[in-house]
Amino acid sequence: MLSVFSDNILKRRNNMSAASDYLEDKVLDHVLGNTAYTPASSRYLALFTSDGGLESNSSGSWTEISSSGTAYAREAISFSAASSGSASNSATVTFSAATANWGTITHVAVMDASSAGNVLFYGAVTTSKTIESGDTFQVSSGNLTISLA
């Protein structure tokens, strides 16, 4: 059976306001004139089965879906220009159909690389989604909003 999970996946009307310690430090240093920050040219959406290590940007603690034999890969994500302290994804993001069970997706993160790299923003999904072989995971355009609080 093919299932597509989409829309309304993040808490607080799809708002993601948790920045990683890595990004917080980069932004503070940049704005306060200590060190210039040059963002990566692309950003990627990643799926996780828990929030372990996301805030501290600790890849050894991440529970990202395995890419080995599952067809999972981070997907590029783009955002509209910020307005009133928020920016939303500007195009639908669709992950490839799973070729094996991915587990239960509980968190997503915006990353600065297609593999490894750094967590920029992260958040919990409103309702955990179990992705089995043949399923896809999708976030519709405008349905993932990042805000600074």
Write structural notes for this entry.
The chain has 149 residues and is mainly beta. The protein has helices at 11-14, 21-31; strands spanning 4-5, 15-16, 18-19, 43-48, 75-77, 86-88, 93-94, 103-111, 119-131, 136-139, 145-147. It has one domain (4-147). It contains 2 helices and 11 strands. The strands form 3 sheets. A 5-stranded antiparallel β-sheet has the order 3-9-8-4-5. The protein has a 3-stranded mixed β-sheet with strand order 1-10-7, with no helix packed on it. A hairpin with a 7-residue loop joins strand 8 and strand 9. The chain is globular, with a radius of gyration of 15 Å. Residues 1-14 have low confidence and may be disordered.
In short, what is this structure?
The protein has 149 residues and is mainly β. The chain is built from two helices and eleven strands.
- Along the chain, the helix and strand elements come as EHEEHEEEEEEEE
Cα(first) to Cα(last) distance is 41 Å
Strand order of the largest sheet: 3-9-8-4-5
Counting helices, strands and paired strands, the structural category is mainly beta
Count of DSSP-assigned helices? 2
Overall geometric form? globular
Number of strands: 11
Classify the oligomer: single chain
Number of domains: 1
Give a quick account of the main beta sheet: strands, pairing sense, barrel closure. 5 strands, antiparallel
Task: Write down the Rg.
Answer: 15 Å
> What are the low-pLDDT stretches, counting only 5+ consecutive residues below 50?
1-14
User: What fraction of residues sit in β-strands?
Assistant: 25-35%
Instruction: State the share of residues found in helices, binned by percent.
Output: 10-25%
